[in-house]
Design brief:
alpha/beta, binds nicotinamide-adenine-dinucleotide, seven-stranded parallel β-sheet, Rna Polymerase Sigma Factor, Chain: A, Rossmann fold, binds magnesium ion
Length: 405
């Protein structure tokens, strides 16, 4: 077993840091701005980006006065530009994927928060990696789709990578930080999972799950896609793949543990029997603040953990029969090549269809399994091979969906 651990990130340079927030209007984007607003001496917002929510991005621009605001959608960008001019703001508005790449790689930018949801986050995150930025990575899909290429781009670009996903941020906090190349005595990564809203549901109850039930996560407030991923446990599957790339951990060294209270955010077991855990209230401002300030600790607005109120911590084995997505993700990781890209694309298509109430909850793993079975898996040679595998899997998933909708 060889877990090489994490490449020790460079400390943040002194002085005010220019930050770009990709996906500023999402839950991670909003939490990031909440933490940044507490530290105006450390951060200046350089760019904020969103898909199409004009009013939300406008409000954020008024408060944080970025140099750039980017919308994916051209009409939304036009509407935002008019509103900003009327308000007397000088923020420049851009649109499209190339503009997202530009504000992720501009020479003025020091830090990039990658918090776009899904495959759309890949290109701007890659641009930030190649430009050697300090990347705070929430968009786990980037690592799932193109882990080897992204880690290579980080290294070659001289970028610094800090994980935002609460589990990976927890692992990063308890990983040995000294040795870069030796295994550092790490035996295992214990990745915790809340189990989602259907932890105790029977197989037949799972077939009848409604959208409203699936969107009602017991512990975390998150965007719709990751909330559904948490309900199917695909989120944990994606996180296993994410941990594999971040910490150079073979699949056998990553164990998923269901921990319904979401107080322990993950653990690392060492060869001497020590198990180190990171705990805290389930509030994304903790990992965001840790990554923003690393190696300093920043005040985040998160309340103290009340051990007496929590009183107990429970642990269970995950059930891959009721939650097949977890096993599908482990399988894809072991298959390697473009298999995780295909898994991710099929999942995005199936989750969108479930959110549009076109398919049932358990059709999500059925569609992913069928796409994985029928797709040819190729080595990941370059970004184009990832983009092609993603596009092909989306077409196959859309075809498969017809059988369920
Ligand atoms: P969200 O749906 O709340 O926000 C998504 C953001 O991305 C929005 O700003 C939206 O405008 C933007 N966006 C969506 N599609 C886009 C596109 N095609 N092009 C450009 N921008 C687009 O999502 P979230 O919950 O904030 O999650 C963001 C990412 O962080 C996801 O990858 C998720 O897995 C990860 N993450 C989230 C949490 C959490 O607690 N919310 C925890 C860990 C990891
Ligand atoms: Mg997580």
């Amino acid at each position: 077993m060889n877990i090489a651990g994490f490449t020790v990130p460079q400390p943040l340079a002194t002085g005010v840091q220019n930050i770009t927030i990709l996906g500023a209007t999402g839950t991670i984007g909003q939490n990031t701005l909440d933490v940044i607003a507490r530290h105006p001496d450390r951060f200046r917002v350089y760019a904020l980006t969103a898909y199409s929510r004009v009013n939300e991005l406008f409000e954020q621009c008024c408060k944080f006065l970025p140099t750039y605001a980017v919308m994916l959608d051209a009409d939304a960008a036009e509407a935002l530009s008019i509103k900003l001019k009327q308000a007397g703001l000088t923020t420049q508005v851009l649109f499209g994927v190339e503009a997202l790449e530009q504000v992720s790689s501009d020479v003025t930018v020091d830090v990039v928060m990658a918090a776009i949801v899904g495959a759309a986050g890949l290109k701007p995150a890659m641009a930030a990696a190649k430009a050697g930025k300090r990347i705070l990575l929430a968009n786990k899909e980037t690592l799932v789709m193109s882990g080897s290429l992204f880690m290579q781009a980080i290294e070659q670009g001289g970028a610094t990578l800090l994980p935002i996903d609460s589990e990976h941020n927890a692992i990063f906090q308890v990983m040995p930080q000294r040795q870069l190349s030796s295994h550092g005595g790490v035996k295992k990564i214990l990745l915790t999972a809340s189990g989602g809203p259907f932890r105790q549901s029977t197989a037949s109850e799972l077939e009848a799950v409604t959208l409203a039930q699936a969107l009602n996560h017991p512990n975390w407030v998150m965007g719709p896609k990751i909330t559904i991923d948490s309900a199917t446990m695909m989120n944990k599957g994606l996180e296993v793949i994410e941990a594999h790339w971040l910490f150079n951990a073979p699949p056998e060294s990553i164990e998923v543990i269901v921990h319904p209270q979401s107080v322990i955010h993950s653990m690392v077991e060492y060869i001497d029997g020590s198990v180190l855990a990171q705990m805290g209230n389930p509030d994304m401002r903790t990992p965001i603040a840790y990554a923003l300030g690393y190696p300093d600790r920043l005040e985040s607005g998160v309340s103290s953990l009340d051990m007496f109120k929590i009183a107990r911590l429970d642990f269970e084995k995950p059930d891959s029969v009721r939650f097949p997505c977890l096993k599908l993700a482990f399988d894809a990781l072991k298959l390697g090549g473009t298999a995780p890209t295909i898994l991710n694309a099929a999942n995005e298509v199936a989750v969108s269809a479930f959110i549009a109430e076109k398919i049932g909850f358990m059709d999500i793993p059925r569609i992913i399994e069928s796409v994985l079975e029928d797709s040819s898996i190729h080595p990941v040679s370059d970004l184009q091979s990832v983009i092609d595998a993603d596009a092909h899997a989306r077409v196959t998933a859309s075809e498969r969906m017809l059988a369920y909708s």
